[in-house]
UniProtKB/TrEMBL annotation:
Top-level taxon of the source organism: Bacteria
PROSITE patterns: HTH_TETR_2
Organism: Williamsia herbipolensis
InterPro entries: Homeodomain-like_sf, HTH-type_TetR-like_transc_reg, HTH_TetR
Keyword DNA-binding: yes
An MF annotation (GO) of this entry: transcription cis-regulatory region binding
SUPFAM superfamilies: Homeodomain-like
Protein's name in the database: TetR/AcrR family transcriptional regulator
Keywords carried by this UniProt record: DNA-binding
Pfam families: TetR_N
Record-annotated DNA-binding residue ranges: 51-70
Length: 221
């Protein structure tokens, strides 16, 4: 009988802590295949149901290979989540280095968040509630850490005058919850699978949270 694994929330909390910590260890091609497989398995099964055998089959390697590189099933899943979070954070950092206007950053951040819809970890929409619970658990929770990062960026924009209205902490709260809610549920008035439509929607509807006024909303002279 398979021993129950650590709850997804615990694994996610530890992964986020590591992803925001020192530089992550490098991995090779086999590690990457195993970690990709672990995320795919997590997208289909809970940590209580998933097995190392299933990860090994998904990766096309033997069970012994998995255990030579990761000393437990929890370790495999934690390492996969660390890499997942690190890649998302890295994408945000790289994009924000190129796009410095806070309104454009809101648009790009929303688009990056919605692009996760294609990730294997989110393949089963029926299991996204478990992921939401995982993001909300822990002290601090991954959700609070995301809010802290967004709020810090908005505070800088307020200090340098790029944003002149609103409260940065409340703006960050709204942005994080909007991104997460659209990721967890299907869009009703916008095609969330179309990156261009997502960016246009974000610029018209999400960006005004930080004080941007869409061109069509400006009264004619």
């Amino acid at each position: 009988m398979t021993r129950p694994g650590a709850p997804l929330g615990d694994l996610f909390a530890r992964a986020v802590t590591q992803a925001f910590g020192p530089a992550l260890p490098t991995s090779d091609t086999t590690d990457d295949r195993i970690l990709d497989a672990a995320l795919a398995v997590l997208g289909r099964r809970s940590t209580r149901e998933a097995t190392v055998e299933e990860i090994a089959r998904e990766a096309g390697v033997g069970r012994a290979t998995v255990f030579r590189r990761f000393d437990s099933r929890d370790h495999v899943f934690e390492a996969a989540l660390v890499r997942f979070v690190g890649q998302v954070v890295g994408t945000m950092v790289d994009r924000f280095a190129a796009v410095t206007d806070p309104v454009d950053q809101v648009v790009e951040g929303f688009a990056i968040c919605l692009a996760l819809d294609d990730d294997p970890l989110l393949a089963d929409r029926g299991r996204r509630g478990e992921l939401l619970a995982a993001l909300s658990g822990g002290d601090p929770s991954p959700l609070r850490l995301a809010w802290s990062a967004v709020a810090a960026n908005l505070r800088r924009a307020h200090r340098d005058g790029s944003i002149t209205v609103g409260d940065p902490d409340e703006q960050a709260d709204a942005l994080v919850h909007l991104g997460l809610s659209y990721l967890m549920t299907p869009g009703l008035a916008v095609d969330l699978t179309d990156p261009a439509a997502v960016r246009a929607f974000a610029r018209r509807t999400v960006a005004p949270i930080v004080g941007a006024i869409p061109p069509h909303a400006v009264p004619s002279p």
